[in-house]
Specification:
4-stranded antiparallel sheet, 8 helices, 27% strand, alpha/beta, ATP hydrolysis activity, Rossmann fold, binds adenosine-5'-triphosphate, 229 residues, globular
């Protein structure tokens, strides 16, 4: 479904990804982990078509990624770009006007699930509730690929927990592939099918989480540390 063939990405003099080969298929939640600056966000942005490889090719269903791919990919960046004068409900309506695949019914269900108030102004939301709203906007699109860049960073444990629960409840695993970058390895481990470890722009490990547990008797964090060592 998603394929990286020998992908290298340079930013001026910095090489963020080096000759990456990767295949990911639908129906999985995949964690992308690694130290700061290892290339996680770069990998997501290449799939979202926001940047392009310096060498090699990224394809989705055998089609080369261009900006048009946005129709198949929902991307939650590590920043938020809300119009702060809007209410939560205005923001949903705005997304519905921008994306033909926006599922308003699912978005409203998620608003209830996360105890957000539709009438609240975005500028009055707490940091945790802004993050919840961001997740809702990313997940409520009926697209095959959902990319979540650091959805848990800087949030308290209760908010992290509610976001993880909402992922399990609202993702359509028959039809969607979810790729999550995170440093909160222990917390997301329970929802991951696969995990990819990046170091200095290269993939140093890619495994099924169940296999790690059964064959190597290791948790994801322990496995990552052993690869880094
Ligand atoms: N626009 C840019 N211009 C120059 N260098 C960049 C740019 N974006 C990223 N880099 C560099 O590329 C490398 C990989 O960055 P990337 O953001 O992909 O890493 P990351 O694993 O997501 O890091 P973090 O965990 O800190 O978010 C880093 O060394 C970073 O400084």
């Amino acid at each position: 479904m998603i394929q990286f063939s020998n992908v290298t990405k340079h930013y001026k003099r910095k090489t963020a990804l080096k000759e990456v080969n990767l295949e990911l298929s639908l129906g999985n939640i995949i964690g992308l982990i690694g130290e700061n600056g290892s290339g996680k966000s770069t990998l997501l942005k290449l799939i979202a078509g926001l940047i392009h490889p310096s060498n090699g090719e990224v394809t989705i269903s055998e089609e080369k990624v261009t900006r048009r791919i946005a129709a198949k990919v929902s991307y939650l960046s590590d920043h938020d770009h809300f119009y702060s004068y809007m209410t939560v409900s205005d923001t949903l309506a705005f997304y519905q006007s921008q994306f033909a695949d926006f599922n308003m019914e699912k978005a409203k269900e998620m608003i209830n699930f996360m105890n957000l108030e539709a009438a609240d102004k975005v500028k009055h939301l707490s940091k945790g509730n802004r993050s919840r709203l961001k997740i809702i906007l990313a997940i409520a699109r009926d697209v095959p690929i959902v990319l979540l860049d650091e959805p848990l960073s800087g949030l308290d444990p209760l908010v992290r927990d509610s976001i993880i629960k909402s992922l399990i409840s609202f993702i359509d695993l028959e039809k969607q592939l979810i790729l999550i970058t995170t440093h909160e390895v222990m917390e997301v481990e329970m929802i991951l099918d696969e995990v990819i470890v990046l170091k200095d722009g290269q993939i140093i490990g890619h495994n099924h989480v169940d296999d790690l547990r059964m064959r190597e008797n290791k948790g994801v964090l322990e496995w990552m540390k052993s690869l880094y060592a």
